[in-house]
Q: What sequence folds into this?
């Protein structure tokens, strides 16, 4: 039996929302909207989701699940995506599946991969894959400290897609685990105690 899924990701500069039909292993992207703007996650996610639903010709009441990229990524970006996914899931009474955003990129490429995204502050988030399966990471490091980086071939930037997010869900038969953001480093903001210690 096929089901309609809303897939969203805000772990990278791309603000992605798409509607996907899943029937077993068959995945069909009905509509997807992507805005690449690292500072517009909060402003663009809901319009992208509503637009993708309209483009697909379906309503929120037709959704059977939500999939969201849980990072690694920036604190605010992840919170926007995860809070939006949780709100859709709660309001509609449908499950919300969290996936590693790097996995969603890798699963669409296949082969031996090193997936790297910008972590800001001269660092990158990275994970290594073999045939779409992660075997190392995710982690954060300076680019020179990423294992295997010297062997990697640079490719044009890729971001998580609606199809990749849905394919990255490991188990559709069990209830999803609670959403947990993949924060791999401390936030830029300092607590009062940290400021006082300086």
A:
């Amino acid at each position: 039996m096929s089901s309609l899924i809303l897939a969203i990701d805000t772990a990278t500069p791309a603000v992605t929302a798409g509607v996907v039909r899943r029937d077993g292993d068959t995945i069909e992207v009905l509509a997807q909207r992507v805005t690449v703007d690292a500072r517009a996650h909060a402003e663009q996610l809901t319009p992208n989701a509503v637009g993708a639903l309209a483009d697909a010709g379906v309503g929120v009441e037709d959704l059977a699940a939500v999939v969201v990229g849980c990072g690694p990524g920036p604190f605010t970006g992840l919170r926007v995506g995860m809070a939006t996914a949780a709100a859709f899931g709660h309001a509609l009474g449908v499950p919300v599946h969290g996936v590693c955003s790097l996995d969603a990129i890798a699963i669409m490429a296949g082969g031996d991969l090193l997936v790297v995204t910008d972590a800001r502050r001269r660092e990158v988030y990275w994970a290594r894959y073999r045939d779409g399966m992660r075997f190392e990471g995710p982690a954060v490091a300076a680019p020179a400290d990423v294992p295997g980086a010297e062997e990697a071939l640079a490719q044009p930037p890729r971001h998580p897609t609606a199809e990749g997010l849905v394919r990255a869900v490991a188990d559709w038969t069990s209830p999803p685990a609670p959403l947990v953001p993949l924060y791999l480093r401390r936030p830029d903001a300092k607590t009062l105690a940290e400021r006082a210690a300086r």
User: Anything to note?
Assistant: Residues 53 and 167 are 19 Å apart (CA to CA). The longest strand covers residues 26-36.
